[in-house]
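Two records follow; treat each independently.
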Amino acid sequence: MASMTAWIKRLENWSKPLLMVTSLGLVAVIGFVDFFTGYAIFFSAFYLVPVALAAWFVGNVFGNAVSMLSVAVWLVGDFAAGAHYPSLFVPIWNGAIALTVYFVVVKTLASLRSSQKKLEARVCQRTAALTSEIQERTRLEKELLEISEREQRQIGHDLHDSLGQHLTATAFASQVLNAELENKSLPQSAAAKNLVKLVEEAIVLTRTFARGLHPVEITGEGLMDGFQELARNTSGRFKVSCEFECPEPVPLHDAVSSTHLYRIAQEAITNAVKHGKARHISIGLEKINGTIILTVTDDGVGLSKNARNGQGLGLRIMAYRANMIGATFNIERLPESGTRVTCKLPSIGVATSEIHDAKN
């Protein structure tokens, strides 16, 4: 079946004149063999090959013409081979029956061919519509992701500049109040001092949140600085041990890829702390054979059931981010305990920004 399909595919690449000559040539060859085998051997079934070839690849009209030619060659060959009939009605009847069969075959094949072409056209239309829909969906997803990144940066900027400055002014006013109360030796000075401490802690938290929403410049070697600060903020915010390991500098000058790698690491750390109950997290960044490899390893309880089934929202987001920059994403449960998230980004010969643009 596979070989026959391959033959049909090959014949479809032939030109119509070549197919017509082939059909007529087959009629001639079969007629020649029919003549030399004698009229006693029934050979009319073999003429179905050129008839089918003509009907399927050339058309209905040519198929009928080959059918009539086949019947004529068959009858002439039998007469030339010495066939004798009781009356002229016998060969006419036999020829009419054979011609009717050929015409039915031609009509059936022509109908099947027409249905096949309509089906192929419909498949092409639906494929084009589906491709267009996928491209539109990818574009919308990209825009939503960009809007999300832009909103996060704006919130981080507002936290750092607006709320941060306001808290700094509040801390300064509280320090002035605390100094005045201490100068007057009033007992409320202890409460004022505690207020200053709380406001300063709020400033630190605000800056931490702002850096998480709007990280430092992470293109070039800034990506390593961003991971270093992410590890430091994670240790301070979640009270876990988080370290960044980068044996050699790994510069990445594409802002889109850098941002996605940073967000993947950020999401992996959040999952490790919130769901994995990890106490130690390691962020690794290295470049091997032109491929940038980001790993986030933790010692938590491992993947949840939903994560193993690919139902976790965070995992889908990380995988989507990796796909957006042409990277491969993998998450695995370690033999003893813990989880490792791996993202591999090829960087030889193709700029990651070009990969990103090509996907859209």
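The next record belongs to a different protein.
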Amino acid sequence: MDLGLKGRRAIVCAASKGLGKACAVSLARAGVELVINARTADALERTASEIRREHGVKVTAVACDITTPDGQKQVLAALPDPDILVNNAGGPPPGDFKDWTRDDWMKAVVANMLTPIELIKATIDPMIARRFGRVVNITSAAVKAPIDILGLSNGARTGLHGFCAGLARKVVKHNVTINAVLPGPFDTDRLRSTLKFEAQKSGRSEEDVAKARMALNPSGRFGQPAEFGDACAFLCSAQAGYITGHNLLMDGGGYPGTF
């Protein structure tokens, strides 16, 4: 399917690896020019070079911490008026809520709620003016079905969803949509770190923990990042203008509900 995105321009945050990279690759395949961001310059430039080589689109790499005002300024200086904004940031660490301080909570809220809101605020007016805009927030299946050891993520990301639910209804008449993709267990570094934490806590091997997690999922496996990237690209497509305010849960059927 031609997604109608050739020549469009996108900011994709935290895109050097994992789900952010997968989204950048899928958008590039559709002909989208990219500004990609991550904190590690070497890994980011490797990803940028790979995408340029394989898909022939312009890719600008901006190495910075997107959760800081300075990092946001750097990314927006590279592309102040994107057609597409993919918000993404690494989730806060797992743990016991009794051990978390106010500073831990503030870091989680800044990274996973306030940063996406600031980037939306900075880019939404040009989208409205050209009557095309797509915002996709990468959050977590934990918003739908909370995971006890990911309480920082559960709280901060749910706040972002609440904010976007209202804004999405205000801007859709301008062909600007705001949606979220909620990943369940995808085979990424983030998942592996969670498995390691669970293994250390339980005294089992990481391999045993991984097998047990896969066995609990109706699909019997972990998701592949490319699957996630293609779903994100469709939500950014010309055909998706009537989809807004939705949270696309991608978890292999793990959530046991009708709605």
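Discussion point: The longest helix spans residues 102-130. How would you locate this feature using only the token line?
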